[in-house]
């Protein structure tokens, strides 16, 4: 790489056509290192043969990981995502998921980190289903990028529809469990939260019987998990007046006084929305009294933000 100097990208692009396996491996490693800076990314993107060559190398088992890593790096910039799209990389990466390619899943995750990247991914009508299928047989290393990519994609309505058809809710329900790594639980909760911002998603999550698990995470999880669990319960309650079970109400009442502002906001919003149902309101008031808390701050509009009902529109909350 050093010997090529300013022509490093051009020379490496040429070497990607080599039939020498060792040369290909070293070229991919050098290219990955070079792509850590923005200038080299731009040069690589504007090389006519480099990205198509990387996509072609995805089919070679010995070089799949190196090529996918380079594609992931290029996908972090807008022009790179456009080049990846033009080279039909998404289909090639998706085809690698059944073989449990962590690098391919990580490249898809890189694309999902931006709104335009999500749009590119969703041009594949089968990708959400492929990522969902990967969760059922995934190792921990593969599960993380697949789950994170799904969580990002679910911010788009089209992805939510695909996810429901693929049965994603069932998989997510199994991941919201104390036996899972906290990072996995946190990401699964984010996916559930995004999915619960649609009417069909709310119905699917409630119908899958996940509410008690959400309450358990809000009560016993770490700080980040509690925040995400409260956010998911908020998304489920807003706009629907859903009746939260007692397993959810008690942890939400406790989280309403959390030192973390977002956690407190999520908890109060969930309680406010569910309190539109009179029996649920009575249960909230009773629970607050048992815990020695002032119920009016949870169900009445007499407190400043984050306790004031006038701020609790679904549009404002979803944008948080």
TrEMBL record:
It comes from the Eukaryota. SMART domains: ARM. InterPro entries: ARM-like (IPR011989), ARM-type_fold (IPR016024), Armadillo (IPR000225). ARM repeats lie at residues 167-210. Transmembrane segments: none annotated. This is Uncharacterized protein. It comes from Emiliania huxleyi.
């Amino acid at each position: 790489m050093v010997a090529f100097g300013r022509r490093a990208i051009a020379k490496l692009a040429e070497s990607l056509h080599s039939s020498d396996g060792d040369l290909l491996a070293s070229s991919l490693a050098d290219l990955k290192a070079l792509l850590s800076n923005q200038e080299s990314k731009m040069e690589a993107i504007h090389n006519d043969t480099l990205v198509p060559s990387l996509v072609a190398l995805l089919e070679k088992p010995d070089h799949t990981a190196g090529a996918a890593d380079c594609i992931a790096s290029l996908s972090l910039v807008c022009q790179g995502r456009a080049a990846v799209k033009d080279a039909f990389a998404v289909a090639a990466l998706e085809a690698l998921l059944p073989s449990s390619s962590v690098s391919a899943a990580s490249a898809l995750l890189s694309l999902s980190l931006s709104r335009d990247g999500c749009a590119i991914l969703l041009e594949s009508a089968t990708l959400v289903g492929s990522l969902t299928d990967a969760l059922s047989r995934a190792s921990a290393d593969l599960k993380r990028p697949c789950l994170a990519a799904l969580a990002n994609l679910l911010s788009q309505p089209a992805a939510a529809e695909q996810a429901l058809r693929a049965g994603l809710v069932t998989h997510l329900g199994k991941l919201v469990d104390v036996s899972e790594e906290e990072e996995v639980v946190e990401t699964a909760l984010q996916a559930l939260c995004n999915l619960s911002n649609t009417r069909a998603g709310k119905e699917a999550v409630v119908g899958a019987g996940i509410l008690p698990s959400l309450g358990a995470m809000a009560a016993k999880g770490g700080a980040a998990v509690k925040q995400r669990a409260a956010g998911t319960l908020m998304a489920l309650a807003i706009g629907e007046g859903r009746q939260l079970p007692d397993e959810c109400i008690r942890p939400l009442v406790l989280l309403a006084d959390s030192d973390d502002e977002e956690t407190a906001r999520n908890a109060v919003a969930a309680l406010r929305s569910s309190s539109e149902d009179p029996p649920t309101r009575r249960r909230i008031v009773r629970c607050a009294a048992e815990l020695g808390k002032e119920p009016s701050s949870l169900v009445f509009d007499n407190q400043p933000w984050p306790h004031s009902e006038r701020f609790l529109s679904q549009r404002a909350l979803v944008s948080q």
